[in-house]
Every structure is written in C-alpha cells, then in structure tokens.
Specification:
four-stranded mixed sheet; 417 residues; UDP-n-acetylglucosamine1-carboxyvinyl-transferase, Chain; 2 domains; alpha/beta; 14 helices; binds ligand EPZ
Length: 417
Amino acid sequence: MDKIIIEGGHPLKGEGKISGAKNAALPILVSSLLADGWNTYTNVPDLKDIESTIMLLSKLGAKIEREKDTVRINASGLNNYEAPYDLVRKMRASILVLGPLVARLKKARVSLPGGCAIGARPINLHLKGLSRLGASIDMEHGYIEAKADCLKGNTIYFDITTVTGTENIMMAAVLAQGETVIRNAAREPEIVALSDVLNKMGADIKGAGTSKITIKGVSSLKPVSVSIIPDRIEAGTFMIASAATCGDITLTGCEPDHLEAVIHKLSLTGADITIDESAMRVLGSDEIKSVDVKTLPYPGFPTDMQAQFMVLMSVARGLSIISETVFENRFIHVSELKRMGANIKVSGNTAMIQGVRRLSGAPVMATDLRASASLVLAGLVAGGTTEINRIYHLDRGYQSIEKKFARLGAAIKRVKG
Ligand code: EPZ
C-alpha cells in the first residue's frame, strides 16, 4: 500500500487551484439516471469515489465517457436495478441510487451500506422518506428492496437533517405524481447544486438551501451539461494548512460564500484571510490563538473540517474545546495526533486541546478520509519526518493532495507500497 512521507516545518507559499466538490459530484452524477440522453459534467474531481460511482452507474446500464475532468453519462440503457454489496461497501454514498432507480425503474435493490469508522450512519430516514412517497421497503440478506408502481408526492419531515437523505428524496420526488415537501431538509451547498442541476433537467424544485424544499413532480427530465461546484472542504483544508505552517497561499477556483463558518473561525485564530471573488489568500500568523468550535449542519462549522481544525488548535496558544455534534465517533484522529505530541483529552463528543509548541513527526495510520487529511496537516507542521500509512482513504476525497502541497513548498512525497 502507498504511503506519504513528509518532512515538516516548511511554511506553505504560492497558489493552488481547488478541484470540483466530491460531495456535489456524487449525487449529480447519479442524477443522470433520471433522464435519457447524454449528460455532460465538467470540473469533476479525479477521485476514487468518483471512479466507484462511475463503476456503479455503468453496472446499472449507463454508458459513460471520461476525458480529464469531463464525464459524460447516458442512462438510456438503464436495465439493472441492483447496486451490489461489493460496490456499496466501497462507498456508502452508493445509497444515492435508491431514489432515482425507484423513480425510473419502479424498483431498486441496494446493499445496505454498513457503518464506517466515524459512526453507525444509518439510512432509516432515507427509507422513511421513500415509504412516505408510496414505496414498499423490504430488507433481507443485507439488501434493501424498494418498489413503487408510481411514487406520489407527500410531506416528509426529517427528524435529523441528513445530506444524502435530502438528496435521495429530492431525486425520487422529481418524477413523482404531485407535490412533495421536505421539512428539516439539509441546507448544504451540495443540496443547492443538485437542485440547480435537476431544475436545469426540467424539474420544479423550490427552496433548496433552506430547511423547506418543495418539489412538484414532472413527467420526464432531459439531459444537461453542467459544471461541478468547488470543493469547500478541500479549500478549507488548504486554508488551515497555510494558517498552521505560518504560510501565505492563495487558493483559486473556490466559492468563499460556502465557507463562512470556516473563514470566521480561522480569522479568530489570527490568520489573515483576503477574499477576491473566487480566490482566497490565507496569511498565517506566528502566534495561533485557541478558538472553540462546535460542528453543526450547514451553515454551521462543518464536521468534515473538524479534524483539520484540531491540528491547528494542537499548536495554538492555550486551551480550545471542540465539540462534534454530527457523528458519534469522529475523534479517531486524536490518538494519532497524540502520538505526534498533541495534548488532547476526549470526553464523550468533546475534545479539549492544550496547544503545544511543536508536534513531532512519527509513523501514523490513516483511518477515514478527513482524519487522514488531518494527519497530512500535522506532518506539515511537525518537526522531523511523518509517515502516513493506508492513504487510500485520502485518495477517496482529495485529488493528488501530495502534489498540490509539494507545489506550495511542502517536503512531501508519495512512496509506492
Ligand atoms: C454527508 O454524509 C457527506 N457525504 C459527509 O461527508 C458529511 O460528513 C455529512 O454529509 C455531514 O455533513 C456525502 O455527501 C457523500 P448525514 P451523509 O446523513 O449524508 C444521521 C466526507 O468526508 N442519519 O447528513 O451520510 C447520521 O448518522 C463525508 O466527505 C440518521 O440517523 O450524512 C449522522 O449522525 C463524511 N439516519 C447525521 O444524521 C439517516 O437515515 C448526519 O448524517 C441518515 C443520517
């Protein structure tokens, strides 16, 4: 298995371009199932999760062409309603095909995605939403079987805001008979991006980005050509890298409006952030202030930025408190950061971080996507050498992260395992 080796202590300098958003691309590529004809998607990031999604869609009968950051998908030949275990286990977001398959083929058989490192991650709300639209739901042998001769609009209230749950129901409801209202809907930019694409396909969705989304069913949709929005989590990760290494980097191809909570918190730590349309410059301060953070659904501080922010707090002055309210087990990175000299105490969903002068490089193990990113950031600021194993987690969500950091002056390389 490949690993990443980092010699820490180099301030990052220069300019980097942010890739398309993984968590927008996944549901948008899946939305191609809802129409016949060729859809063209540009600014698609080159990630393992995109490869998995393309593999799944072609297994369902879609034709797919890919040229650099452009992916073209034609689902006219959609002829298989089963998403098998060996694909779903690699990427739990495969559950997103459930809604579109029931909408188009009137049935779906999708392997139950298991839990993952950060939590149990149930899909009960996805299934509750689908049954509210009239689908019958059975579960056997580790598979969900959903059927509906004709989905009918209804009001769906999500007890918890769920990003992919909102996306799944949106995609099921666009071809349903009548009106669907989703209450307590997730408000992430990726939801708005999906809604924009579906409306461009001929859907009638209002309210995406708010907690109430109204969808009037239409009889059919047409294919589109769209570009994927920038990845706010990749951008946030690089912003923190600049702040943590007392660097000076400019990120282009971003959407600062999607990062308000991160920009606010990062500014409080003493970083100087300048915004110019789709570019952001982050000037690190040699004295990092401790700042408390609580993760929340959008527009709150994103849970996907929690591990990265913890690295910054590990080398800040004073005590900071980070509360993780979205997932029940998202402090896995703490034990690895402590092996690098971080002073962190965890109690339940709260971590108390006492900043130290410097982290020290060590061999560490990646466990999930964002925890892996935090280990890269820790390696960049630590004294000495850090070796990160199991970096396939990183490749799921960051496009050539070591090349991007090397171009910014980091002493970082990938070693083929
Ligand atoms: C999406 O996951 C993202 N993934 C995650 O990003 C992100 O961390 C998460 O939203 C929260 O922002 C994609 O968009 C592909 P949720 P999702 O449903 O949709 C509970 C990354 O690193 N819940 O919003 O799976 C759930 O357990 C990944 O890019 C239920 O109880 O998250 C969690 O506590 C990691 N029942 C909370 O809701 C359900 O049916 C929020 O989960 C669904 C969710």
